[in-house]
Specification:
The structure is a homodimer.
Chain A lengths: L3 H11 L5 E2 L2 H6 L15 E4 L3 H14 L2 E5 L15 E5 L6 E5 L4 E5 L4 H9 L3 E2 L12 H7 L6 H4 L6 E7 L5 E5 L11 H5 L8 E8 L1 E2 L6 E7 L2 H13 L6 E5 L1 H10 L10 E7 L3 H17 L4 E5 L2 H7 L1 H11 L4 E3 L2 E2 L5 H15 L2 E7 L4 E7 L5 H20 L15 H23 L14
Helix pairs in contact in A: 1-3, 8-10, 8-13, 9-12, 13-14
Chain lengths: 462, 462
Amino acid sequence: MQTSETVVAELHRMLRADQVLTDAASLDAYAHDDAEWAPYERPLAVVLAEHEDDVSAVVRLAAASDVHIVPRGAGTGLSGGANAMARSIVLSLERMTRIVEVNVAERYVVAEAGVINDTLREAVAAHGLWYPPDPASYRISTIGGNVATNAGGICCVKYGVTRDYVLGLRVVLADGDVVDLGRRTAKGVTGYDLTALMVGSEGTLGIVTRVTLQLLPIGGREERAIVGSFGALREAGVAVAEITAAGIVPAALELIDRTCVEAVDAWQSLGLPHGVDTMLLAKVDEVGAVGDALAASVARIMADAGAVGVERAADAAEIDRLFLARRLAYPALERLGPVLTEDICVPRGAVPEMLSRIQATAAAHDVVIANIAHAGDGNLHPLIIAPEGDDAAKARAKLAFDRIVDDCRELGGTVTGEHGVGLLKLPGAAEELGPRVIALHAAIKHALDPLGTLNPGKAFPA
Amino acid sequence: MQTSETVVAELHRMLRADQVLTDAASLDAYAHDDAEWAPYERPLAVVLAEHEDDVSAVVRLAAASDVHIVPRGAGTGLSGGANAMARSIVLSLERMTRIVEVNVAERYVVAEAGVINDTLREAVAAHGLWYPPDPASYRISTIGGNVATNAGGICCVKYGVTRDYVLGLRVVLADGDVVDLGRRTAKGVTGYDLTALMVGSEGTLGIVTRVTLQLLPIGGREERAIVGSFGALREAGVAVAEITAAGIVPAALELIDRTCVEAVDAWQSLGLPHGVDTMLLAKVDEVGAVGDALAASVARIMADAGAVGVERAADAAEIDRLFLARRLAYPALERLGPVLTEDICVPRGAVPEMLSRIQATAAAHDVVIANIAHAGDGNLHPLIIAPEGDDAAKARAKLAFDRIVDDCRELGGTVTGEHGVGLLKLPGAAEELGPRVIALHAAIKHALDPLGTLNPGKAFPA
């Protein structure tokens, strides 16, 4: 085992000075992603890779030096997948921002891992193409990070998640070798689907340096928003179930609960009707009369379920206004204190039961829990808020977090819908996967990374 | 190593008499799938499993006896993935035909591997749900086989392939252990995507005994067919490119070439206009005025590209009539002699170039090659026909097959779009994947099946 000093000296030897950060402020800034609740340690160094050769060289050095690599995009992860560990190098791909190719005829884009989701969306939009996956972080998160966590978003209820758009990947393997996986054609079944295996593997099997993403035509959609205000959570739950039962696949179906509504209203008055408890925010995007009819159906279902108010909009500015409460929910809650973000996914029909259990958990553990939910997917984000510096509240928040995971499992859910296991969901994942499936994970990890160089201890429980 | 007699005796001891076939006729019938051109040998026995416990017991016996397991659905594969080898047991899942659950609220179905694709489609249709993937074999192939090969079909140009619908799998591993992979919720990212790794792995990593498939609402679609007849292949190629460029995602976009058209017309007169060389068969399925407008656009693009005739239909019987030539193409060609089916996938824009290279290859090797193409995906099925008993023609057909694979690679294509590597595409896959990616396959295979019990030698080149 080489000393830490030797490893850092070697990094300096092989890269430019501005690519290797070792000052305390940088080491602390890169020590964790947005999951500060998960454990982390100060890394030996932060490397800002600019080319896959940099990635490859650093991985080879780490493998030879018994040092760990923690790959990182923008650090917006919410499960601790990019949290640093002892004797680790944080390998950031944020400078790999080249859009290599936009192919209009074949409808794909090739981009380096550090390209921001929104930058990629704009680049392809200029060619009449659309990249749907829209995690809440899309303005700041990288496409490589989206791939590493298989990020979801609001429109995935209709348009699918990151994985559904990944055609191919360039990956630096644990021995530093660079491989191209997947394809650029519309279909292909040559060999195992190693591309899908890499998506969501949180940098534990390889480091994604370049992605090839399938795109849709940007046209052929006309967005309409339908927003219902409900006096009771269970009424909104009924509306969600009825929309699904009617065979409607909305382009968005979001729910925010009373705690969110109140936090938003207290911050920036929304002029909501009195007694509003829950808001259900839907979009449909079919064109013309079909879209009109679907929007009318969604509005009617909301009203029949007991909505005290239903608003509709078809132009972009009005849609933005109606969705304002959804956009403001997270920042409004962050004003109340540090937020521990849950990410369970239950069967759609279990959303009302799960939400009422969460309310009970909040009461039992004396913590504030607000709910933002991708209701159409059954993907709930209970946000547990502990006042700054209140260690007792923080301890209660962690108990509530575990309780929510248990309830989710009891209702047939999965412990992470779109944020990834990282470190935060290791105990829940252990329950969900069971020992035999965990052993499969370990066997694959060992087959691809026998020295345990790449982000060890993340993505699946030991 | 146990003797073959001991292994067969043990099978008879652990299963009912009618579950173990050892007569010569059965052994020959189950010795290969629909890829008779690929090598095969007579198996030791055929086992008709009725429960995953049967599968598990037979796998354990095989592992302990140094015998190979060749899993099999309906045997409709076209690459030899289910071809038997020396010292093998063909393990058929055709009797595992239970539809375990249709969940309307969550829109999924759980079915055993032996359920026929069409049976599953009808079962879920009765609940207002739709399972899109429609391989040509959908009336006779099993859903387990579809999963093992990641089967495509006609509608996947718009609706995706088998993989896009698989939420979870029950799998018997190489040591006989049974695991549940994946989930039943709409989203989920807990651990590696082992479900996707299993899909398309041709029974080399585990034996799929049960599948959980995501479904769509059956409603909300109105099919319209638009069929263009062209005097020249390149004109049809232009139409395909223009349809894509217009941002239209058709629900089907099939092409049949002159050899197909002539074979069909010679068999059952289609009353086609004189001089028709190529037919392009499209469907759109948007509702109402939007669908009408799209159908009109497709028809106009075909006419502008030089179609000598464009027919349109909106009712089911008329659509069937217009698609008749597509349905008859394969049987019409089989009348001319044994068919060696290719399955290349090239970039959409390369379809005309690839088709003209195939014509040149047919001339150069003096073989008849007809083309059926999922043109909207760039997925071509050149059908190479060698007269029965003509060994010289068969040898020339094999040379043509290899030439087509080389041309496909040169144009940026993949050697198998939807049929799988099996045995037939091992050389092409070796070229496409390269040694480092093949080594990844071998490492994963070894990690999950260290004794090489499950269908060794298939799916990827050694």
